[in-house]
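Many groups now describe folds with learned vocabularies. In that spirit, our science desk offers one protein's residues alongside their backbone shape tokens.
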Amino acid sequence: MFKRIIEKLSKTQEEMDEILQRIISQNEDMEDLSEELLGERLSDEIMSQVIEQEFTKVIEKRIKEAFE
């Protein structure tokens, strides 16, 4: 049981950079769309907060899944 949990957590750790890059890419697309539709890009501060929240959400989900 513990071995499975450790394996899942290790896999999540290994994939963290990939997860972060995917979230950043998706949010850059959203930022481009915002500029196209609204004529303004979202501020770096807002984008940073959105990326951090989404990254935290994904990691929390993976950790919970490891213990199920």
